[in-house]
Amino acid sequence: MKNMNNVNNKKDIFRIATKNVVSVPITTSIIDTAKIMERYSFRRIPITDAGTNRLNGIVTTVDIVNLLGGGSKYNLIKNKYQGNLLATVNSEIKEIMEKNVICLMENDTIIDAAEMLIKKGIGGLPIIDKKKILKGIVTERDFIKILVGNSINTDNNHFREISYKKIKDYMSKKVIYVDANETFGLALRKMLDNGFRRLPVIKDNVLIGSLTATSVMRFLGSGKIFNKLVTGDFDEIYNLEVKNVMLNEFNTLDIDMNVIDAAKKMSTTNSGGFPVLNGDRMVGIFTERDLLRVIYDHARDYIYG
């Protein structure tokens, strides 16, 4: 890691990171944490000491998928609460938080953040000081600011080079989708088994929506999940059809779109990835992580240099 003493230097992480971070104490319930994440459209939230703001852990939308989708955190539902979803989500957030948090130090740089996000395959990094006091957070999405923000000179040669790049050269061509009539539980298992945060939803081979880690978290945080309960047993939720949970509104990208236009479109939504179409056929997925790789590969000398 590099140390930067001049906070005005263009490499400074706080040039793109969020300083005033919303966090919750470890005694907050799972459902209340999900409500806060839903309210602010967060994909992750740090867990801190109430008095000192010292970082204890982090919870992401993927942790909610893990809990509801039969991952390692599902043991909380199955074993501790014998399938009782209401009792589970009213337990403390420390039950499902990730304790070994990958962080940046406050003097690290933008390039440190990019390298760590890519290397670790994660979507966000809390920023701490030497005492583990939370100072900020930086996410993959923050890097979109580099392409669409006003502070960057897009006439620079590095950015002209990016403007010629097509998303088809960076998108994931491995498309795993879920049928609208498939069960919610099996769809979540697909997400977990493949390490995906989003799945396109089809009906009669036509793209009709998406199931994302964020939409799963909103299903819990909004309280809609409880409208589907009769007995309170988790199996009622697991056996729901995906069409009851998916996002009906979705955006797509055209296969011939360039990277900067894709970044501009992504900046107008809270979606972390869009299906890529060739005509009416879905041929890939382009995500914020793919965009970060493009920026890192082609503009780092200018942005971070």
Automatic annotation (TrEMBL):
Domain of life: Archaea
Pfam families: CBS
Annotated CBS domain residues: 17-74, 97-154, 171-229, 246-302
CDD domains linked: CBS_archAMPK_gamma-repeat1 (cd17779)
UniProt KW keywords: CBS domain
InterPro entries to which the protein is assigned, alphabetical: CBS_dom (IPR000644), CBS_dom_sf (IPR046342), Diverse_CBS-Domain (IPR051257)
PANTHER family: CBS DOMAIN-CONTAINING PROTEIN, CBS DOMAIN-CONTAINING PROTEIN CBSX3, MITOCHONDRIAL
Name of the protein described by the UniProt record: CBS domain-containing protein
Lineage: Archaea, Methanobacteriati, Methanobacteriota, Candidatus Methanoliparia, Candidatus Methanoliparales
